[in-house]
Design a protein that fits this description.
Helix content: under 10%
Structural class: mainly beta
Number of strands: 11
Largest sheet: 7 strands, mixed
Number of helices: 0
Distance between the termini: 39 Å
Length: 121
């Protein structure tokens, strides 16, 4: 059964850190681009971090660059997200996503169920 399961969300104070994890089952996660999205109520889901399949190249949205990191040494079939210097704008539901980018899995995509992160004092 194909599944993505996020964990690690919760309440954190402004300026604090949090590490999210996303565990894949039923497929080889590293064969896919692995992406992190976040969504706040009333807004579209926003892609903010990406690690490409095979090469492991990472890209980040400007708003999180330098504070959020996808570690390269992820456990097998897992991707993590290290979030530092969190601010209230980081409050959102965080989703991981797998996207196939080459044949024969091009366009195939899987989503996790999301994990809530709340940044508040």
């Amino acid at each position: 059964q194909v599944q993505l399961v996020e964990s690690g969300g919760g309440l954190v104070q402004p300026g604090g850190s949090l590490r999210l994890s996303c565990a894949a089952s039923g497929f080889t996660f590293n064969n896919y681009a692995r992406r992190w999205y976040r969504q706040v109520p009333g807004k579209e889901r926003e892609l903010f971090a990406h690690i490409s399949s095979f090469s492991g190249t990472t890209n980040y949205a400007e708003g999180v660059k330098g504070r959020y990191t996808i570690p390269r040494d992820n456990a097998k079939n897992t991707v993590s997200l290290q979030m530092n210097s969190l601010s209230a704008e980081g409050t959102a539901v965080y989703y991981c996503n797998a996207l196939g980018t080459s044949y024969p899995i091009s366009g195939r995509t899987y989503w996790g169920q999301g994990t809530q992160v709340t940044v508040s004092s």
